[in-house]
Amino acid sequence: MKIVKTEVVRVNVKKPDNAIILKAANLIRNGEVIAFPTETVYGLGANALDTLSVSKIYRIKGRPPDNPLIVHIANMKTLRTLVTEIPPTANKIIKKFWPGPITLVLRKSKILPKITTGGLSTVAIRMPKNKIALELIKKSGYPIAAPSANVSGKPSPTNASHVKEDLDGKIKLILDGGSTEIGIESTVIDMTSNIPVILRPGGISKESIEDEIGNVHYHSSLIGLRRYKGKINKSPGMKYMHYSPNAQVILVEGTEINVNIKVAELTNKLKSEGKKVCVMTTNKSLKVNAEMVQYMGKTLEAIARNLFGNLRKADKNSIDVIIVEGTPYNNTGFAIMNRLKKAAITCIRV
Question: 73 and 82 in contact (C-beta within 8 Å)?
Protein backbone atom coordinates (compact mmCIF):
# COMPACT_ATOMS: atom_id res chain seq x y z
CA MET A 1 0.00 0.00 0.00
CA LYS A 2 1.27 3.45 -0.95
CA ILE A 3 2.30 5.53 2.08
CA VAL A 4 0.61 8.94 2.26
CA LYS A 5 1.01 11.90 4.59
CA THR A 6 -1.74 11.76 7.20
CA GLU A 7 -2.99 15.18 8.29
CA VAL A 8 -4.84 15.55 11.62
CA VAL A 9 -7.11 18.59 11.74
CA ARG A 10 -8.89 19.67 14.92
CA VAL A 11 -12.58 20.51 14.46
CA ASN A 12 -14.99 22.13 16.92
CA VAL A 13 -17.66 19.46 17.39
CA LYS A 14 -20.30 22.02 18.40
CA LYS A 15 -19.56 24.43 15.55
CA PRO A 16 -17.57 22.70 12.77
CA ASP A 17 -15.48 24.99 10.57
CA ASN A 18 -17.10 25.05 7.14
CA ALA A 19 -13.78 25.22 5.23
CA ILE A 20 -12.41 22.15 7.02
CA ILE A 21 -15.59 20.17 6.39
CA LEU A 22 -15.57 21.17 2.72
CA LYS A 23 -11.97 19.99 2.39
CA ALA A 24 -12.90 16.63 3.89
CA ALA A 25 -16.04 16.37 1.75
CA ASN A 26 -13.98 17.02 -1.41
CA LEU A 27 -11.72 14.11 -0.49
CA ILE A 28 -14.79 11.86 -0.16
CA ARG A 29 -16.12 13.05 -3.52
CA ASN A 30 -12.73 12.36 -5.12
CA GLY A 31 -12.72 8.75 -3.97
CA GLU A 32 -10.52 9.09 -0.89
CA VAL A 33 -11.02 7.50 2.53
CA ILE A 34 -10.87 9.70 5.63
CA ALA A 35 -11.45 9.32 9.38
CA PHE A 36 -14.05 11.33 11.27
CA PRO A 37 -15.74 11.30 14.69
CA THR A 38 -19.23 10.10 15.48
CA GLU A 39 -20.91 9.94 18.88
CA THR A 40 -19.94 6.24 19.18
CA VAL A 41 -16.41 5.72 17.79
CA TYR A 42 -14.36 7.23 14.96
CA GLY A 43 -15.36 6.08 11.48
CA LEU A 44 -13.30 5.34 8.38
CA GLY A 45 -15.43 6.84 5.66
CA ALA A 46 -15.81 6.68 1.90
CA ASN A 47 -18.55 7.23 -0.68
CA ALA A 48 -20.91 4.32 -0.07
CA LEU A 49 -22.09 4.33 -3.69
CA ASP A 50 -18.63 3.97 -5.25
CA THR A 51 -17.22 0.44 -5.46
CA LEU A 52 -13.59 1.55 -5.78
CA SER A 53 -13.81 3.92 -2.80
CA VAL A 54 -15.42 1.28 -0.60
CA SER A 55 -12.81 -1.30 -1.61
CA LYS A 56 -10.15 1.04 -0.18
CA ILE A 57 -11.82 0.79 3.25
CA TYR A 58 -11.48 -2.99 3.25
CA ARG A 59 -7.87 -2.79 2.11
CA ILE A 60 -6.85 -0.11 4.63
CA LYS A 61 -8.45 -1.93 7.56
CA GLY A 62 -7.53 -5.45 6.48
CA ARG A 63 -11.23 -6.25 6.75
CA PRO A 64 -12.78 -9.51 5.43
CA PRO A 65 -14.96 -8.77 2.35
CA ASP A 66 -18.01 -10.57 3.78
CA ASN A 67 -18.14 -8.22 6.77
CA PRO A 68 -20.72 -5.58 5.78
CA LEU A 69 -20.24 -1.87 6.36
CA ILE A 70 -22.61 0.57 8.04
CA VAL A 71 -23.85 3.34 5.78
CA HIS A 72 -24.16 6.76 7.42
CA ILE A 73 -26.76 9.27 6.24
CA ALA A 74 -27.83 12.79 7.18
CA ASN A 75 -31.51 12.85 6.16
CA MET A 76 -34.57 10.71 5.48
CA LYS A 77 -34.57 11.52 1.76
CA THR A 78 -31.30 9.60 1.39
CA LEU A 79 -32.65 6.68 3.40
CA ARG A 80 -35.58 6.28 1.01
CA THR A 81 -33.18 6.01 -1.96
CA LEU A 82 -31.07 3.31 -0.27
CA VAL A 83 -33.80 0.90 0.88
CA THR A 84 -36.84 -0.71 -0.73
CA GLU A 85 -39.13 -0.29 2.29
CA ILE A 86 -39.22 1.15 5.80
CA PRO A 87 -41.41 -0.99 8.08
CA PRO A 88 -43.65 0.84 10.61
CA THR A 89 -41.53 -0.46 13.50
CA ALA A 90 -38.42 0.95 11.84
CA ASN A 91 -40.14 4.31 11.52
CA LYS A 92 -40.86 4.26 15.26
CA ILE A 93 -37.20 3.62 16.03
CA ILE A 94 -36.13 6.36 13.63
CA LYS A 95 -38.53 8.86 15.19
CA LYS A 96 -37.29 8.09 18.71
CA PHE A 97 -33.56 7.44 18.31
CA TRP A 98 -32.28 9.13 15.12
CA PRO A 99 -29.91 10.86 14.96
CA GLY A 100 -28.28 8.45 17.39
CA PRO A 101 -26.36 5.23 18.05
CA ILE A 102 -28.71 2.71 16.46
CA THR A 103 -28.29 1.05 13.07
CA LEU A 104 -31.19 -0.51 11.16
CA VAL A 105 -30.79 -3.46 8.82
CA LEU A 106 -33.25 -3.03 5.94
CA ARG A 107 -33.73 -4.37 2.41
CA LYS A 108 -31.33 -2.49 0.14
CA SER A 109 -32.15 -0.80 -3.15
CA LYS A 110 -30.21 -1.41 -6.36
CA ILE A 111 -28.32 1.85 -5.96
CA LEU A 112 -25.97 0.31 -3.36
CA PRO A 113 -23.06 -1.78 -4.66
CA LYS A 114 -22.68 -5.29 -3.24
CA ILE A 115 -19.26 -4.52 -1.76
CA THR A 116 -20.82 -2.00 0.64
CA THR A 117 -23.24 -4.58 2.04
CA GLY A 118 -20.90 -7.57 2.10
CA GLY A 119 -22.76 -9.11 -0.86
CA LEU A 120 -26.08 -9.17 1.01
CA SER A 121 -29.55 -8.01 -0.07
CA THR A 122 -29.77 -5.91 3.09
CA VAL A 123 -28.01 -2.75 4.23
CA ALA A 124 -27.03 -1.61 7.72
CA ILE A 125 -27.75 2.11 7.95
CA ARG A 126 -27.80 4.87 10.57
CA MET A 127 -27.88 8.62 11.13
CA PRO A 128 -25.08 9.68 13.51
CA LYS A 129 -25.60 12.21 16.30
CA ASN A 130 -22.46 14.24 15.73
CA LYS A 131 -22.35 17.60 13.96
CA ILE A 132 -19.01 16.93 12.29
CA ALA A 133 -20.25 13.63 10.85
CA LEU A 134 -23.59 15.07 9.74
CA GLU A 135 -22.00 18.10 8.05
CA LEU A 136 -19.45 15.88 6.33
CA ILE A 137 -22.20 13.65 4.91
CA LYS A 138 -24.29 16.63 3.78
CA LYS A 139 -21.41 18.45 2.11
CA SER A 140 -20.02 15.35 0.41
CA GLY A 141 -23.38 14.79 -1.25
CA TYR A 142 -23.17 11.03 -0.70
CA PRO A 143 -24.05 8.50 1.97
CA ILE A 144 -20.82 7.48 3.70
CA ALA A 145 -19.87 3.88 4.38
CA ALA A 146 -17.86 3.85 7.59
CA PRO A 147 -16.67 1.05 9.84
CA SER A 148 -14.54 1.93 12.86
CA ALA A 149 -11.29 3.69 11.93
CA ASN A 150 -8.85 1.07 13.18
CA VAL A 151 -6.99 -2.00 12.00
CA SER A 152 -9.53 -4.81 11.79
CA GLY A 153 -9.85 -6.73 15.07
CA LYS A 154 -8.24 -4.08 17.27
CA PRO A 155 -10.04 -1.93 19.87
CA SER A 156 -12.16 0.70 18.21
CA PRO A 157 -10.83 4.29 18.28
CA THR A 158 -12.50 6.82 20.56
CA ASN A 159 -10.18 9.74 19.82
CA ALA A 160 -8.05 10.92 16.91
CA SER A 161 -4.77 9.69 18.42
CA HIS A 162 -6.14 6.12 18.39
CA VAL A 163 -6.86 6.46 14.68
CA LYS A 164 -3.37 7.80 14.00
CA GLU A 165 -1.81 4.87 15.91
CA ASP A 166 -3.47 2.42 13.53
CA LEU A 167 -3.79 4.27 10.23
CA ASP A 168 -0.96 6.80 10.02
CA GLY A 169 0.39 6.77 6.46
CA LYS A 170 -2.70 4.96 5.13
CA ILE A 171 -5.22 7.83 4.88
CA LYS A 172 -4.88 11.51 4.01
CA LEU A 173 -7.04 13.09 6.69
CA ILE A 174 -8.26 12.56 10.25
CA LEU A 175 -10.87 15.00 11.52
CA ASP A 176 -10.18 15.40 15.23
CA GLY A 177 -13.41 16.06 17.11
CA GLY A 178 -12.08 15.07 20.52
CA SER A 179 -13.15 12.02 22.52
CA THR A 180 -16.39 10.34 21.52
CA GLU A 181 -19.37 10.56 23.85
CA ILE A 182 -20.52 6.94 23.96
CA GLY A 183 -17.34 4.95 23.35
CA ILE A 184 -18.85 1.75 21.95
CA GLU A 185 -20.40 1.15 18.56
CA SER A 186 -24.05 1.53 17.65
CA THR A 187 -26.71 -1.06 18.33
CA VAL A 188 -27.53 -2.97 15.13
CA ILE A 189 -31.08 -4.30 14.78
CA ASP A 190 -32.45 -6.39 11.92
CA MET A 191 -35.83 -5.01 10.84
CA THR A 192 -36.41 -7.55 8.06
CA SER A 193 -37.91 -10.27 10.29
CA ASN A 194 -41.35 -10.37 11.92
CA ILE A 195 -39.83 -9.74 15.34
CA PRO A 196 -36.82 -7.37 15.17
CA VAL A 197 -33.50 -9.00 16.11
CA ILE A 198 -30.55 -7.25 17.74
CA LEU A 199 -27.43 -8.40 15.89
CA ARG A 200 -24.98 -6.25 17.84
CA PRO A 201 -25.72 -4.60 21.19
CA GLY A 202 -24.51 -1.03 21.50
CA GLY A 203 -25.36 2.53 22.42
CA ILE A 204 -29.13 1.95 22.65
CA SER A 205 -30.22 -0.87 24.95
CA LYS A 206 -32.72 -3.64 24.21
CA GLU A 207 -34.86 -2.31 27.06
CA SER A 208 -35.04 1.15 25.49
CA ILE A 209 -35.98 -0.26 22.09
CA GLU A 210 -38.70 -2.47 23.57
CA ASP A 211 -40.18 0.56 25.31
CA GLU A 212 -40.85 1.95 21.82
CA ILE A 213 -41.78 -1.03 19.63
CA GLY A 214 -42.48 -3.97 21.95
CA ASN A 215 -40.85 -7.40 21.77
CA VAL A 216 -37.30 -7.59 20.41
CA HIS A 217 -35.02 -10.64 20.32
CA TYR A 218 -31.27 -10.97 20.71
CA HIS A 219 -29.56 -12.92 17.93
CA SER A 220 -28.67 -16.43 19.13
CA SER A 221 -24.95 -15.60 18.82
CA LEU A 222 -25.34 -13.08 21.64
CA ILE A 223 -26.84 -15.51 24.12
CA GLY A 224 -24.54 -18.10 25.62
CA LEU A 225 -22.39 -18.72 22.53
CA ARG A 226 -18.67 -17.86 22.52
CA ARG A 227 -18.48 -16.83 18.88
CA TYR A 228 -20.77 -16.66 15.89
CA LYS A 229 -20.13 -19.52 13.44
CA GLY A 230 -22.82 -18.81 10.87
CA LYS A 231 -22.15 -18.25 7.19
CA ILE A 232 -24.06 -14.98 6.83
CA ASN A 233 -23.43 -11.96 9.02
CA LYS A 234 -25.82 -9.06 8.45
CA SER A 235 -23.96 -6.85 10.89
CA PRO A 236 -20.38 -5.88 11.69
CA GLY A 237 -19.13 -7.50 14.88
CA MET A 238 -20.94 -10.83 14.50
CA LYS A 239 -18.54 -13.25 12.90
CA TYR A 240 -14.98 -12.22 13.63
CA MET A 241 -12.92 -11.65 16.76
CA HIS A 242 -13.03 -7.97 17.58
CA TYR A 243 -11.82 -5.31 19.98
CA SER A 244 -8.60 -7.15 20.91
CA PRO A 245 -5.51 -5.33 22.17
CA ASN A 246 -2.04 -6.83 21.74
CA ALA A 247 -2.16 -7.94 25.38
CA GLN A 248 -4.10 -11.08 26.26
CA VAL A 249 -7.43 -10.31 27.93
CA ILE A 250 -8.89 -12.39 30.77
CA LEU A 251 -12.48 -11.59 31.70
CA VAL A 252 -13.62 -12.40 35.25
CA GLU A 253 -17.30 -12.15 36.18
CA GLY A 254 -19.35 -13.08 39.23
CA THR A 255 -20.07 -11.65 42.69
CA GLU A 256 -17.90 -8.70 43.74
CA ILE A 257 -16.17 -10.59 46.56
CA ASN A 258 -15.39 -13.64 44.42
CA VAL A 259 -14.21 -11.50 41.52
CA ASN A 260 -11.86 -9.50 43.76
CA ILE A 261 -10.36 -12.70 45.18
CA LYS A 262 -9.93 -14.25 41.72
CA VAL A 263 -8.39 -11.10 40.24
CA ALA A 264 -5.81 -10.95 43.04
CA GLU A 265 -5.06 -14.67 42.64
CA LEU A 266 -4.63 -14.39 38.86
CA THR A 267 -2.47 -11.28 39.20
CA ASN A 268 -0.08 -13.00 41.64
CA LYS A 269 0.13 -16.11 39.44
CA LEU A 270 0.86 -14.14 36.28
CA LYS A 271 3.40 -11.93 38.04
CA SER A 272 5.22 -15.06 39.27
CA GLU A 273 5.48 -16.10 35.62
CA GLY A 274 7.16 -12.80 34.77
CA LYS A 275 4.12 -11.23 33.08
CA LYS A 276 3.29 -7.52 33.15
CA VAL A 277 -0.30 -7.26 34.35
CA CYS A 278 -3.00 -4.61 34.05
CA VAL A 279 -6.21 -4.86 36.06
CA MET A 280 -9.34 -3.05 34.85
CA THR A 281 -11.75 -2.66 37.75
CA THR A 282 -14.90 -0.90 38.91
CA ASN A 283 -13.60 -1.02 42.50
CA LYS A 284 -11.63 2.14 43.32
CA SER A 285 -10.23 0.64 46.51
CA LEU A 286 -9.00 -2.63 44.95
CA LYS A 287 -5.41 -3.42 45.97
CA VAL A 288 -3.53 -5.77 43.64
CA ASN A 289 0.10 -6.39 42.76
CA ALA A 290 -0.17 -5.21 39.14
CA GLU A 291 1.87 -2.85 36.96
CA MET A 292 -1.33 -0.98 36.06
CA VAL A 293 -4.72 -0.61 37.73
CA GLN A 294 -7.29 1.19 35.61
CA TYR A 295 -10.53 2.40 37.14
CA MET A 296 -13.26 1.70 34.57
CA GLY A 297 -15.87 4.11 35.92
CA LYS A 298 -18.83 4.21 38.28
CA THR A 299 -21.69 3.93 35.78
CA LEU A 300 -22.20 1.61 32.82
CA GLU A 301 -22.10 4.65 30.53
CA ALA A 302 -18.71 5.68 31.91
CA ILE A 303 -17.35 2.13 31.60
CA ALA A 304 -18.47 2.02 27.96
CA ARG A 305 -16.94 5.43 27.23
CA ASN A 306 -13.57 4.40 28.72
CA LEU A 307 -13.45 0.77 27.57
CA PHE A 308 -11.49 0.87 24.32
CA GLY A 309 -9.23 3.67 25.54
CA ASN A 310 -8.27 1.60 28.58
CA LEU A 311 -7.42 -1.41 26.42
CA ARG A 312 -5.21 0.77 24.24
CA LYS A 313 -3.48 2.34 27.27
CA ALA A 314 -2.47 -1.12 28.43
CA ASP A 315 -0.82 -1.79 25.08
CA LYS A 316 1.04 1.52 25.26
CA ASN A 317 2.51 0.35 28.57
CA SER A 318 3.64 -2.99 27.06
CA ILE A 319 1.27 -4.99 29.27
CA ASP A 320 1.24 -8.76 28.66
CA VAL A 321 -2.10 -9.62 30.26
CA ILE A 322 -5.17 -7.51 31.04
CA ILE A 323 -7.48 -8.86 33.73
CA VAL A 324 -10.85 -7.13 33.45
CA GLU A 325 -13.87 -7.35 35.72
CA GLY A 326 -17.24 -8.08 34.17
CA THR A 327 -20.25 -5.78 34.47
CA PRO A 328 -23.97 -6.45 34.97
CA TYR A 329 -25.77 -7.46 31.77
CA ASN A 330 -28.64 -4.98 32.01
CA ASN A 331 -28.94 -1.97 29.69
CA THR A 332 -25.52 -0.82 28.37
CA GLY A 333 -23.84 -3.58 30.38
CA PHE A 334 -24.91 -6.17 27.80
CA ALA A 335 -23.01 -4.28 25.07
CA ILE A 336 -19.95 -3.88 27.29
CA MET A 337 -19.86 -7.60 28.05
CA ASN A 338 -20.31 -8.39 24.36
CA ARG A 339 -17.15 -6.39 23.57
CA LEU A 340 -15.18 -7.90 26.44
CA LYS A 341 -16.11 -11.47 25.53
CA LYS A 342 -14.99 -10.89 21.96
CA ALA A 343 -11.71 -9.36 23.14
CA ALA A 344 -10.95 -12.02 25.74
CA ILE A 345 -8.97 -15.24 25.23
CA THR A 346 -10.35 -16.59 28.53
CA CYS A 347 -13.65 -15.94 30.32
CA ILE A 348 -13.92 -16.99 33.97
CA ARG A 349 -17.09 -17.04 36.10
CA VAL A 350 -16.62 -17.21 39.88
Answer: yes
Give the CATH number for residue 185. Answer: 3.90.870.10
Report yes or no: 146 and 70 within 8 Å, Cβ to Cβ: yes
Give residue-wise pLDDT tens across range 151-169. 998 999 999 999 999 999 9
Rounded-to-integer distance, Cα 76 and Cα 98, Å: 10
Angle, nearest 10°, between helix axes 131-140 and 18-29? 50
Q: Are residues 152 and 15 in the same domain?
A: yes
The whole-angstrom separation of Cα 261 and Cα 325 is 11
**Is residue 228 included in any domain, yes or no?**
no
Residue 333: which domain range? 248-349
* Contact criterion met (CB below 8 Å) for 195 and 29: no
3-state helix, strand, coil in the chain (%, to 5): 35, 20, 45
* pTM (two decimals): 0.94
